[in-house]
Amino acid sequence: MKINTLLSICACTVVLLSYSCGKDPVTTPVPGPGTVDTTDTTTHVVKYTRDSAIKDYQQMFLATEVLNTGWTGSTANCDPGSVPQSVHDAVIKRINYFRKITGLNYDCTLDASLIPAQQRTALMMAAAGDLSHDPDPIWPCYTADGADGAKKSNLRLGSAATDAVVAFMNDEEEYNQAVGHRRWLLYSKQSAFSHGSTHNTAVIHVLVKAENTKVPEFIAYPPATFVPYPIVYHRWSFSIPGADFTNANVTMLHKGIDVPVQVVSRTEKIADNTIVWEPQQAISEPGIYDLTYTVTITDIGNAPKQSYTYSVVIFKP
Length: 317
Fold this sequence. Notes:
By secondary structure, the chain is α+β, with helices and mostly antiparallel strands. Helices cover 21% and strands 22% of the residues. The strands form three sheets. The protein has a five-stranded mixed sheet, sandwiched between helices. α1 packs antiparallel against α2, α2 packs parallel to α5 and α3 crosses α4. The longest helix is centred in the first third of the chain and has 17 residues. It is globular. The two termini are 32 Å apart.
């Protein structure tokens, strides 16, 4: 039986399920030495046309599919092994694709110095067939640096490499309503990650470097542009650093008709502050014509504006 499980570092006071937030709350990263603390709010959103959206989807998403990680390790021998550099390259390119289409910086790098430890974290999760941000020393193939990496990473069991990136962006599990994995990959200040994979686990270190200062007006997913239907997931999210979504309301329109939504999260302290909702009717696959959804979010506190309206144009690639 194939098990697909995600675990994101997050701040939480109540553990809803065994795979929700883990035992060690982690808040938004504190800027490290050399980090620029000021925020340049200059928007550098890519202005997509339908054709350019298709081109990036083909070159940055489809072209980064990893069919076999080529992992050289072994859980039986507690060998963390390695994956080819091409796999690491594909992972960061796919992450940068999702950042690019949301208007974020898409020049994030992988810290190669952390990859050996990330491999040991991925090995521990594969050997245990389980996920934890605070693995016990009795775990099979336990190492101290592997355990340290678990505290600072998105964790995936059931797929690896670029497939795990998709799973992190989707965050479809009941206990991931706050879309914590997505938020870390789309964290506005993020400038570097690291990565490790086995044949069926993936680890993406999200507390490496937070030096980006060019932040768009907001970070929406699906983004406010042309979006290929296969990457439109059930949970929609909207983020602004430091914003207060406590009293915010979300409305969606399609062809001028209201689309009922249910807000499922308004959490803070996981990367950027975010509101998450689920449309209460299926988003149909486009045919000949693209589908446009207009989103309005009102009553936002502690943000440059109290309300934002944008359109998501979904197309069949």
